[in-house]
Each structure stands twice: as structure tokens, then as C-alpha cells.
Specification:
14% strand, 5 strands, alpha/beta, Ubiquitin-like (UB roll), DNA polymerase, domain 1, single chain, 6 helices, 34% helix, 157 residues, three-stranded mixed sheet
């Protein structure tokens, strides 16, 4: 009898206080909010559909040229309040082409150096030995001071 009386009092109090039960559909969210920082065009908070992946977030944020996504798995599903930090490549990580050991394909990656000029660089080092200075590259036919200045920061001995 006491239990019934307590139940009735609680029920009456809940109705009087305006307490209503939660419905599951009120709790369900269709979006998540994440934060993206680092080497992206639009850093900050963004709202994505539920079950979005890292790749979806990167697509929406837009990657900058120096973004290093090598360690990121684009298939990972994000959760609400996740934070993505997109690192940038440091200058030390950008590979430079060696004029003493570079292949034709590697030398052709340099701006203004085509296959024939790359072959001339290889022929020069086979005939005269390895380059002792970067400025010695101007001895190769087709590479003048202006072209050397364009590629100077991209080459090593």
C-alpha cells in the first residue's frame, strides 16, 4: 500500500512539474561537428553528416599544397567533436634532386629541364666526373645562369 501511495504521489508530482519523458528520436543526431586545423583552406569547425570519413572532411576543408596526408587514413569514420590536425611538409622533407646521381626521370622533374637536357647533365658527369659545385652545372649546354637560378633550390650535389 505504501508503494502504491508513493507511486501516485510521484506520478502526480511529475505531471504537476511538467516533466515529460524523452523519446529516442529526439536524441538521435544526423550530423557531427568536428574541427580541422593545419594545412587546409578552411580551418575551424565544420558540420558533417553522420558516419562521415576523414576523406570527406578533407574534401570539404580543402587541402593546401604543403599538406602532408601520408599518415592519414581517409577511410576512418569520424565521431562528434573529433579534431583533425593536418601537418605540413617541412622544407627538410622536400626531396631535392642530386645532379651527381639523379636519373633522367628525376632530373626531368626540375622546371625547365627536359629529357635532352637531363641526358646532357648525365653525359657531362660521365665525361668530366662528378660536379664539384652547383655552379658547374652552367658548363652543360642548355643550362645558363637564369635556368640555374630557377632550379638552384631544388638540386643538391
Amino acid at each position: 500500500m505504501k508503494l502504491l501511495l508513493i507511486f501516485i504521489v510521484l506520478l502526480f508530482t511529475a505531471g504537476w512539474a511538467g516533466i515529460t519523458p524523452y523519446h529516442m528520436y529526439d536524441l538521435k543526431k544526423d550530423t557531427i561537428r568536428i574541427t580541422v586545423n593545419g594545412e587546409v583552406e578552411s580551418p575551424g569547425e565544420m558540420e558533417l553528416p553522420l558516419y562521415s570519413s576523414v576523406g570527406d572532411a578533407l574534401e570539404q576543408a580543402g587541402l593546401l599544397e604543403d599538406a602532408d596526408t601520408e599518415a592519414l587514413n581517409p577511410q576512418i569514420i569520424l565521431k562528434d567533436h573529433d579534431v583533425l590536425n593536418i601537418p605540413g611538409r617541412s622544407d627538410s622533407e622536400i626531396l631535392k634532386v642530386s645532379i651527381n646521381t639523379g636519373t633522367i626521370d628525376q632530373l626531368c622533374l626540375l622546371p625547365g629541364i627536359g629529357e635532352s637536357t637531363a641526358q646532357k647533365i648525365i653525359d657531362y658527369r660521365e665525361t668530366n666526373g662528378l660536379f664539384r659545385t652547383i655552379d658547374e652545372l652552367t658548363n652543360v649546354k642548355g643550362i645558363g645562369p637564369a635556368k640555374l637560378e630557377k632550379i638552384r633550390d631544388l638540386i643538391i650535389l
